[in-house]
Amino acid sequence: VTTPRFHAPLAGTGLARVQLPAHEVHHLRDVLRLSRGAAVRVFDGRGREWAARVEQVDRHAAAVLLDAEIQPVAEPPAPVTLGLAILKADFMEEALRDAAMVGVSAIQPLIAARTVVGVRTADADRLTARWQRIVLASIKQCGRAVVPAVHGPESAGAWMAMQRDATQLKLLLSEPAMTAAAGAPAPIVWRRGRADGALLVSGPEGGWTASEFDTARAAGFIPWTISPRVLRADAAPAIALSLLFYEWERNLDS
Amino acid sequence: VTTPRFHAPLAGTGLARVQLPAHEVHHLRDVLRLSRGAAVRVFDGRGREWAARVEQVDRHAAAVLLDAEIQPVAEPPAPVTLGLAILKADFMEEALRDAAMVGVSAIQPLIAARTVVGVRTADADRLTARWQRIVLASIKQCGRAVVPAVHGPESAGAWMAMQRDATQLKLLLSEPAMTAAAGAPAPIVWRRGRADGALLVSGPEGGWTASEFDTARAAGFIPWTISPRVLRADAAPAIALSLLFYEWERNLDS
Question: Does the CB of A224 have a partner CB in chain B at under 8 Å?
Answer without folding.
Answer: no
